[in-house]
Design a protein that fits this description.
Oligomer: single chain
Distance between the termini: 19 Å
Strand order of the largest sheet: 2-1-3-4-5-14
Protein name: 4-hydroxy-tetrahydrodipicolinate reductase
InterPro entries: DAP_DH_C, NAD(P)-bd_dom_sf
Pfam family, one: DAP_DH_C
Largest sheet: 6 strands, parallel
Number of helices: 10
Order of helices and strands: EHEHHEHEHEHEHHEEEEEEEHHE
Radius of gyration: 20 Å
């Protein structure tokens, strides 16, 4: 019998999740909640770009979805970042309220909404307590993940750590060229590209990097038995060597055209766990910074320095926009987790509380 699933929100990630639920042979879409009035009343297929209608009509009424009693809801509401990528506590609290309503009603939740919940131990403990209480009341499970933060920082580096004799440092890097991304609000707003080189971009304001990626630094450390002394944030910007134009607009010479940042988990004065992002507008920019994995414009790299040293590279060839597969993979991480989450004991969980999440049932006949 198929697992009955609802989808909550259809932004970039939610739309991919919706499409993936519809196509998944072990899942059945039974309801859809949207926030955009223009989407209300539309068939789910139309919203996510499929040709064959599903008969599932979008609503803005969360209670209507709860009344359908799905086994699980894929919750992709924007619960972490507000205007210009700056965290707003109200959005997290609102997302947690909706998630608690679902969990109390006996509906399991897989989510990308509140990023720090990838490591519940270092997330907002008031929110964690509310979710745990809702899970106990409803006998349900809540799992938050994605790609980055998410899969690239849990299963991959920890699996690689199992073939080492000594670990000095684990570094997980995203290396991307965002110049083809036609999203001015993110390019100039969140990342501050095109802004003066001495202006702090919103993503690098104190505390933001730790909120976004400190959770996975702590998750890796916890799984390695490390007690971190602290976490540190670091960033540097790259000035455009000349004026150039990208789909999102014109970048003036001397303004910001790249950012490299790190969140470092410090043990005994040394960076033991590091999450790094290298974000350029063009592949050729900042040539002294790390290059993209396996010689392409974007991807991920896991490096273990120790005995022996290991480098694992994951690329996304075949996409003009390297952010596209990342957004899709963020959705697929939670959609493919639904069968194991539905079967799991109640509580707020991480991947290490669950059986391995695989593509079971997805091999083409």
């Amino acid at each position: 019998m198929a697992i009955r699933v609802g989808q909550w929100a259809t932004g970039n990630v939610g739309k991919n999740a919706l499409r993936s639920i519809i196509s998944h042979p072990e899942l059945e879409l039974v309801g859809l909640v949207v926030s955009d009035p223009a989407k209300v009343g539309k068939d789910a297929a139309e919203i996510c770009g499929l040709d064959t209608p599903t008969g599932i009509i979008a609503t803005d009424d969360g209670d209507a979805l709860i009344a359908l009693k799905p086994d699980c809801v894929s919750f992709c509401s924007a619960g972490t970042s507000g205007r210009e990528g700056v965290t707003t506590g109200n959005r997290q609290s609102d997302a947690a309220d909706h998630m608690c309503d679902l969990l109390r009603a006996g509906i399991n939740v897989v989510s990308t909404a509140i990023i720090p919940l990838v490591h519940p131990g270092s997330a907002d403990q008031e929110i964690v307590r509310r979710l745990e209480a809702a899970c106990r009341e409803g006998g349900t499970t809540c799992f938050t993940s994605g790609l980055d933060p998410g899969f690239m920082h849990d299963i991959l580096p920890l699996a690689l750590s199992g073939v080492t004799r000594r670990i000095d440092t684990i570094r997980v890097s995203e290396v991307m060229s965002y110049g083809v991304w036609d999203k001015p609000d993110a390019i100039t707003g969140k990342f501050g590209f095109g802004k003066p080189i001495d202006e702090v971009p919103p993503i690098a304001r104190p505390g933001v990097l730790d909120m976004m990626w400190g959770s996975v630094v702590r998750l890796i450390a916890e799984q390695l038995g490390l007690k971190l002394d602290r976490t540190e944030e670091y960033y540097e910007l790259y000035p455009a060597p000349e004026t150039f134009t990208i789909p999102a607009g014109t970048i003036v010479k001397g303004s910001s055209a790249g950012i490299r940042f790190e969140v470092r988990g410090i043990v005994a004065g040394k960076a033991a766990v590091v999450v790094e992002h290298v974000t350029r507008l063009r592949v050729e920019d900042a040539p002294h910074w790390p290059k993209g994995p396996i010689g392409i414009g974007g991807g991920y790299r896991v490096q273990i320095s120790g005995d022996p040293d290991w480098v694992l590279e994951v690329g996304n060839p075949g996409y003009a926009d390297p952010t596209v597969p990342g957004t899709l993979a963020t959705a697929l991480r939670i959609v493919n987790a639904i069968p194991v989450v539905v079967a799991a004991p109640p509580g707020v969980v991480t991947p290490f509380d669950l059986p391995m999440i695989t593509g079971k049932g997805l091999v083409a006949a």
